[in-house]
Amino acid sequence: MKKEILMKVSIFAILALVVTLFTTPVWAAKTLRITLQLPIKHHLGANLIDFKEQVERESGGSLEVKIYPSAQLYKDKEVPQAVSSGAIEMGVASLSQFAGTIPAVDLFYVPFLLPSYDKVVKATQYDSPIRSRIDAEILKTGARTLWWQAYGGVVLLSKDHAVKMPEDLKGLKVRVFGKMLGEFAKAVGAAPTVMSGSKQFLAYQRGTVDAGMTGITAVKPRKLDQVMDYATITNHADIEFLVLINDKVWQGLSDKEQKVLVTAARKVEKELRGKIQSLEADALVYAKAHMKVTELNSDQIAAWQKATQSVEKIYINNSGPLGAELIKAAKEL
């Protein structure tokens, strides 16, 4: 009896093993989750979708990319730590979120340092002396930069009156998203409040702040025109976002998979950088249809430059030798 029972158990075990071997795939796709604080309809979201499609196609199914938009998983300020710790494989964060550990990244928020599209393009090329140094510093945190996402220039939003001259911001509470943008606000007598992009709508609606800095492309997807009446095109700073991957996750990928990611990243980065001007132009058309928009003339810009020229010195003092090196490189572009 015991022998019969043992034989039956053995047969069932063998059958179970055979079923498992024939029903379980030899490999399973590696999943790369990406956290994004913006809506998927924003151009950064569309850029990620293009990346996802190319990676999944070119990897032959060995890589799967899942996008979590609108800060479902992490707020902007939480992304660098989440990626570097391995809590999530990938994430999108504004460059300014690294300013706490790498103050020099605030170079792009030094007022009017990179006043043209051409200079921004040169500064953000993957092999430029500016970007390569910044990427190298970020890698030390455990997060590897896959590509930079062009977001556009900074604009000022206000509710009660248009902001045309530096004195128009005096005494106002202003939403900012970087230390140097905060220094910009202080230089003209305003009180800066650091706030993630996802909190802007409620802050403007409730009057937590009187004005704010953001990109013109954020107005429509974040519905900021519903809570702010005026927009001023200052373009005093350039907003850059980074797509990051945990370095240990990166090291765990095959050479082929790494190549697939790099190729896709370079492609979608180039595409977005090439169309950011048209995206901003379309966003400006929308803003003009829903808000009162001021485009500063040369005299007004000169007044802003004069009022905020102290910020460059503050940046160098705050960021040390690396900051001084990057300032020099930016001026040589």
Keywords for this structure?
alpha/beta; 333 residues; 10-stranded mixed sheet; 10 strands; 19% strand; 11 helices; D-Maltodextrin-Binding Protein, domain 2
SSE arrangement:
Blueprint: H1 2-23, E1 30-35, H2 43-58, E2 63-68, H3 79-85, E3 90-94, H4 117-124, H5 129-139, E4 143-158, E5 173-176, H6 179-187, E6 191-194, H7 200-206, E7 211-215, E8 230-233, E9 238-246, H8 247-251, H9 255-290, E10 292-295, H10 298-307, H11 310-331
Parallel strand pairs: 1-2, 1-3, 5-6, 5-7, 8-10
Antiparallel strand pairs: 3-9, 4-7, 4-8, 4-9
Description:
With 333 residues, this protein is α/β, with parallel strands linked by helices. The chain has one domain (2-331): 3-Layer(aba) Sandwich (D-Maltodextrin-Binding Protein, domain 2), CATH 3.40.190. The chain is 46% helix and 19% strand. It has 11 helices and 10 strands. Strands 1, 2, 3, 4, 5, 6, 7, 8, 9 and 10 form a 10-stranded mixed β-sheet that branches. Helix 2 (43-58) runs antiparallel to helix 9 (255-290) and helix 6 crosses helix 11. It starts with a helix and ends with a helix.
